[in-house]
Design a protein that fits this description.
Elements: H1 16-30, H2 33-40, H3 65-71, H4 93-106, E1 111-113, H5 117-129, H6 132-146, E2 148-154, E3 164-169, E4 173-178, E5 181-194, E6 197-206, E7 209-217, E8 224-226, E9 246-248, E10 257-261, H7 283-302, E11 306-308, E12 314-316, E13 323-325, E14 349-351, H8 357-375, H9 393-399, H10 401-432, E15 443-445, H11 454-466, H12 472-479, H13 485-499, H14 515-522
Antiparallel strand pairs: 1-15, 2-3, 2-10, 4-5, 5-6, 6-7, 7-8, 7-9, 11-14, 12-13
Length: 523
Amino acid sequence: MPLPTHDQEWPPPHMRAEMRLYGQHGAWYSGDPDRLAEVYGNGAVSPGLGLDLKGWDRPLQYAGGAVGRIARWFWGSPIPAGQSRSTKLHVPLAADIAAKSADLLFSEPPTLRAAGKKTQKRLDQIMNEGSVYAGLLEAGELGSAYGGAYWRVGWDTEMADYPVYDSLPADSAVPEFNSGRLRAVTFWKVVGEDQKVVWRHLERHEKGRVYHGLFQGDDSRLGHPVPLQEHPATEGFADMVDSSGGFDSGYPKGLLVHYVPNMRPHRTLRGTNLGRSDYAGVEPLMDALDETYTSWMRDLRLGKSRIIVPEVYLQNTGRGRGSYWDPDREIYSGIGMLPPANGSGNMITLSQFAIRVEEHWKTAKTLVAAIVRGAGYSVQSFGEAGEGVEATATEIHSRERQSLTTRGRKIGYNTPALSWLGDCLLSVDHYIYKSKVTAERPQVEWPDGVFLETESVARTVDLLNRAQAASIDTRIRMVHPEWDEDQVGAEKKRLRDELGLNVPDPATFTDQIIPDQADDLDG
């Protein structure tokens, strides 16, 4: 049977190593301090999560072994027993790296070129109206954080007149590879929890088929299958599946799912077909960056100006009510006593500690540069240098060479996926929506990736025009690289009209003589 028929551990035991990495990288990507403390602190986190309420400062975390090793991370160190709150600070650089990865790939989306005009028109309609390009940005982020993402094609005839696309993170799937290609995959999602009972929805994709199942278990066990109608999240699939629990996908060439690795090879799980995260290997540096910023904020807290006053300067509020300091009081009476031996009087003492701004800033800057380089990007891509200064294409390539190199490697993984996506969308469109277009694998065209300022482009085009080194068609495409053939042709005609280049053929002038002029000629 395609779906499990008996109770078992879930996620499956063979996915433990992968799920452990997904948990770590997912915590960095989320930027949630509680999740980071939970992952690296072995559950010894703040009471807000309801874990380890009595034993924050556990002796076991100071010992050796796996628990002690994890606890020696900044995010794994216990909160001191006498401290009222956690003062740890997180810098969301991991989320910035994932967003930058997606922007470099899909902020200026690639173009899918089909052979037929009708096919191209329908493909453009699906890609634009279906928000496919927006979904690709999401897939780019998920792939950067988790080491890969799953692209999935589906349909909803009640909500849309075209196939839909979405992306899923790697920690929500159990894949099966064959010769490096995705042969089958099972997605799972917790759709409900009732005390100790956990409801999971499993969706399995095989060649030409999709299966849905609902399981009732607990936190760590899948449990037993139950009818799809027993939960609102899955009852909509009950009428779609047949006796085997599945239905035809409408794409006989393969799966409705494509796995896109972020980067390969995987440095930790050798021999796997999964991709590696951009965070792989830089987790200790991100941990150290958070520790640096936490220390910086600690200096600010401890460096607050404080004053120490003698007891005589305090205003007594009565027996048992304590005293207070009145900073606006101007006159105090002296004390009838001998002066101190050191010559100082009963004066107000100012306490002001130094704040090590320069040291913390340099440390943080160095760590950020090391993290960004370790993830495969240039520091300039994050606005650390050269911001606001206009540069030529050559200068941009030189500054951001590492980022563009990483982008080129990722394009190699995303190009076949985009070609599959166009073919799959058109196939489902033909099967479900009865479209008349023929499904085909389109050609993928990627933009340059170097984004020049408008002024720089205009200056380049002007120089080419003066040197008569580029045609009108070429210059238009330089200014508007995103335009198609029809837009370029229309703009070329308008420009030639404005320049007076569309002159009629002189041989036809005799056919355009004005009547008054004809009388003069006859006379």
